[in-house]
């Protein structure tokens, strides 16, 4: 398939099965102009280190397929990471897993990293946000250039990630140059912000600009929603099939502030479905709401999703909204646990050494030779460990 050089960089979350380098080819095969990937198993704290050949091949393939690590790739962090956690063990593992992810980005020459802000699990929100911001700064301190991009969430349970939360986190992060936000269309809608017509769409973005600001916008996740507005459910649907409908995506594809950003599909199904979605979204560029193609396609896709929407609407109507606040349960281990903090202090020195090594090597070679850089860093880190 051929890729067109467009201002709007639509792509998809792709598989890294049999090696991280395969993400690049998987994306190229579906003509994506941007892509996302997991840096390691998304359900594990740590993963095996990358082989040198994998890293080299990743760089070579990006060059061959013209993906820039600076702008076109937005990896997704592990689902386990909760940097806001009041539990000492979870906090410690999260921070280690987070820094490991950031280091992987830098080895691969990737400048952006998408992360779920985490959850309070019923604890004091203000304290959780403070802890989260401090942990983001620890990660930034331990690395050289990668930007931490916080994703807005659907508002399920005690999850952090409404616009207010993101604004409060950014406010507390010291290194504001390296923090940003990713807006997921499904999460936004499920959290109660309508995006289905021009008026509501613009109202959301106005609020976004007021609370956070476009300068922090680093990426978009393009997903229709399986569940209705304000459902607080994180259930992605194929473009045009869900409660959002095609018009919301036509608006995305004609919003100048989103030009040049990674616009990533995380919709269900196999790669060929997302390849079709990439094509469809690109066709929406420059089209008006009353365009014949837009109207016909919109009706066609809504029809295909009609049955599922009916089921979900009935479920939501039946479910009485119980808004009991979650109880704050005391945990045996808490963050103040001295041993854990001491342990992290030890790790922190190692991270800073690794960061400085990476920085030295980058200085010497510039951006031209990421391959060599990755090799040297790997060797030197190995020596350090001996
Ligand atoms: Zn996500
Ligand atoms: Zn998402």
TrEMBL record:
It holds the Pfam family AP_endonuc_2. Residues 306-334, 353-386 are annotated as: Disordered. This is Apurinic-apyrimidinic endonuclease 1. Residues 33-283 form the Xylose isomerase-like TIM barrel domain. GO terms for biological process: base-excision repair. GO terms for cellular component: mitochondrion; nucleus. Belongs to the AP endonuclease 2 family. GO terms for molecular function: DNA binding; DNA-(apurinic or apyrimidinic site) endonuclease activity; isomerase activity; phosphoric diester hydrolase activity; zinc ion binding. It comes from Yarrowia lipolytica (Candida lipolytica). HAMAP family: Nfo. Residues 353-370, 377-386 have a biased composition (Basic and acidic residues). Its cofactor is Zn(2+). Keywords: DNA damage, DNA repair, Hydrolase, Isomerase, Metal-binding, Zinc.
């Amino acid at each position: 398939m051929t890729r067109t050089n467009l201002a709007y960089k639509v792509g998809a979350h792709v598989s890294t099965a049999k090696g991280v380098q395969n993400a690049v080819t998987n994306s190229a095969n579906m003509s994506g102009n941007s892509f996302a990937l997991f840096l390691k198993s998304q359900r594990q704290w740590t993963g095996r280190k990358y082989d040198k050949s994998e890293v080299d091949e990743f760089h070579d393939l990006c060059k061959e397929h013209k993906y820039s690590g600076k702008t076109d790739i937005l990896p997704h962090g592990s689902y386990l990471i909760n940097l806001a956690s009041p539990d000492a063990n979870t906090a410690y593992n999260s921070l280690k897993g987070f820094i490991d992810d950031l280091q992987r980005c830098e080895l691969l020459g990737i400048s952006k990293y998408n992360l779920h802000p985490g959850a309070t699990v019923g604890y004091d929100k203000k304290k959780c946000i403070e802890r989260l911001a401090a942990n983001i700064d620890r990660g930034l301190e331990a690395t050289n250039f990668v930007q931490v991009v916080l994703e807005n969430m659907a508002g399920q349970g005690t999850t952090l990630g409404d616009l207010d939360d993101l604004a409060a986190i950014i406010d507390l992060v010291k290194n504001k140059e390296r923090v940003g936000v990713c807006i997921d269309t499904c999460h936004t809608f499920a959290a109660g912000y309508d995006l289905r017509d021009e008026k509501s769409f613009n109202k959301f973005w106005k609020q976004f600009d007021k609370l956070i600001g476009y300068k922090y916008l680093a990426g978009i996740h393009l997903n229709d929603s399986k569940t209705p507005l304000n459902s607080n459910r994180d259930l992605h649907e194929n473009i045009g099939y869900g409660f959002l409908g095609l018009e919301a995506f036509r608006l995305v594809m004609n919003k100048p502030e989103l030009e040049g950003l990674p616009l990533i599909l995380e919709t269900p199904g196999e790669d060929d479905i997302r390849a079709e979605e990439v094509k469809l979204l690109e066709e929406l560029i420059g089209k008006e709401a009353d365009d014949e193609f837009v109207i016909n396609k919109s009706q066609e896709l809504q029809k295909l999703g009609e049955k599922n929407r009916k089921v979900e609407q009935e479920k939501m109507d039946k479910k009485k909204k119980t808004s009991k606040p979650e109880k704050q349960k005391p945990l045996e281990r808490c963050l103040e646990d001295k041993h854990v903090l001491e342990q992290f202090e030890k790790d922190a020195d190692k991270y800073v050494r690794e960061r400085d090594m990476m920085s030295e090597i980058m200085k010497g070679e510039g951006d031209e030779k990421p391959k060599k850089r990755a090799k040297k860093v790997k060797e030197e880190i190995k020596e350090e460990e001996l």
